[in-house]
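Repro case for the chain-ordering regression, as requested:
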Amino acid sequence: MKILTGNDLKTGAVTWWTGVGWSLDVNDAADVGEDGAKIIAREEGVQNVFAAYVIDGEKTAAKDGWTVRPAHIKDRIRALGPTVRPDLTLKPSDPEAVNWVI
Amino acid sequence: MVDVQFRFRDDEAVNDSAVTVDAFTEQTNATAVRIEPGDDARALLPFLDRLRLIEVNFPAWTDGRGYSSARVLREAGFTGEIRAVGDVVIDMLSHLKRCGFDAFAPDKPLNPADAQAAFERWDNVYQATADGRQPIWALRHQS
Amino acid sequence: MYKYDSYDQQMVDTRVAEFRDQVRRRLSGELTEEQFRPLRLQNGLYLQLHAYMLRVAVPYGTLNSAQMTVLGDIADKYDRGYGHFTTRQNIQYNWIKLEDTPDILADLAKVEMHAIQTSGNCIRNISSDQYAGAAADEVVDPRPYAELLRQWSSFHPEFLTLPRKFKIAVIASETDRAAMRLHDIGIKMVRNPAGEIGAQFYAGGGMGRTPMIGPMIREFVPLDQLITYSEACLRVYNRYGRRDNKYKARIKILVHELGKDEYTRQVEEEFAHLLGQGIEPPLAELERIKQYFVDPAFEAGASDELDLSDPDFRLWVERNTHAHKQAGYVIANVSLKPVGGIPGDASADQIRLMAQLAKDYSFDELRVTHAQNIVFPHVKKADLYTLWKALDEAGLGIANLDTLGDIIACPGLDYCSLANARSIPVAQKISERFGSAEKQAEIGELKLKISGCINACGHHHAGHIGILGVDKKGVENYQLLLGGCEGADTSLGKITGPGFDENGIVDAVEKATEVYLSNKQDGERFLDTYRRIGMDPFKEAIYG
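-- result from build under test --
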């Protein structure tokens, strides 16, 4: 699948395109198919996000709360948070979440 | 030609069309020249007395060579118009002026209120440059 | 230390107003991200992997207690309760909101701090010796010269859009504690045969993808020409530094391609011209700055006695303190490298505690080091045990300075959008394996430095052991380098061979230390043994 991600203009937070809006949870990410560039132009134009780009990813069977997996480690770290500070990640109470990144 | 949006000179506007540095050195009657970022402003020094206008082009505002060009010209005593043209943005204005630019013709006209705020931003400055302002160190030690 | 007058205060206040206006124009859509980016970078505001990041300048690494307290408060108020001290003696916050940044800058301005030119293609914060004004071996305190250069370089209208970033370091002793020759310009304050103080200039050093040790370009610049000479160096770079390729845009490439002699000739020509332009501040300005850097009121005749009966304290004194120029005083280093910790990170509480302790025991002064540690520059020996106890209770009392536990590491792929691999987990594993007091005593001084990409913020080229993280088809991979050094005998590390995975690199480090231990001669450090026996024995042990 093709996933669209960017950062919230005001807070800088990593966000994922859900098909209708933006979510902080990568698992909400929708497959944008060929529409990525079009959505980026519109969403950056209305100042919702910036630094948006399309990445490869895959829908996975639900495991430990994950259903969408970005293809590159950099985007998995963006999705989770810093692996060295589990308390500040998307899944602060799951010590195993770091293993999903690798 | 793009309009001059801001000008800090009292003399008559210069409307001569600027030629390239290469063309200028071969064309003895030209009174206006345009410097590109890669041009050596010092090549013009022998001809300053017949120049009325030197345009300094900024194809991209993040290429800062034009600042040095303007200072080199002012340090050599050029008193004609130095005009910033091209990708001139609000946040450059006060710095350009400090380096000796006294006319500004941005490709995309700037918001006049923002531009005025930018020109007036710095009440004092740390360096002595081409604008003749007393730097802070001089103010600190004036007797 | 330096205190702002009304002019300095007005400059930072004006910058806050300017940035507030820039943020307003960004949020209203007047500025696109492409237009805003260079502007925010000149205020130290990055976009990193998880959020905006703000880098706050600590000019030449010197801070007072009120400033340090505010750094802690910012971590609580606007971030997530911690900050990261960097290899350029600054601090950065990882979870900043764009909307908050003008207010953060305003908070900083209240204690004479800022984020001016901590990023972007301009002259960056000037770094210096963390022991300045305290070390016995300095010719003169380098900080007044660094402050003079700070003011000159702040908002210098000609040099805000250079080909690339520009880093300056100023030192004043034979022992180089600031990696001076790995800077775009390195300045060493020296005394000439006539007994006068002047500045020795080095240009074109740097790390990154093309590491270079800067050659000397001028043996002695008189003090009343310091700014003029600097301006000449910068003007030649601004006019002729490469702009066609971002990776070849640093001054080191210009100096290398022109050759040191030709670059120097051009600088001298520009310098001769600029001498007639009246751009040099009068010496009275330097004298004015100097008066802020006079020695604190040391107690005459303070005792040099130390009660070392507490063995943990004894170890810390041996490892983490340095001789002070004043009898009865000592320079104390706080290691921000607990075993298994994140190098350079400190919590808001720890930051405020260090601020308070500096007030109580170090004449209100602290330093940040390029090795991501904190220094109390002027501690009376009689207070040292009390200070250490207070630090130790807060997890800041570890004795590992310059050993394998005291690792420099960039934020790496855990935080940084440029990184190819994570640095911090590697640092944690190495410090866990080698961090015990026994291991450290056995191995002694060994500076290990880790970068998560070729940009080398973790100084891997200059580590006795360096580690470089790379991306190998989407998998983190780590290369090993040996033999780098950032001191007066600067050298660049060499890559041993093929890279390793995360566990493999830790094993490779262990093998390297084993080669050292079985080959070392009396008094040799790891680096000395490496320099004597060369790469081959290490290669054999690691790959054999």
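Ordering looks correct now. The longest strand of chain A covers residues 49-63.
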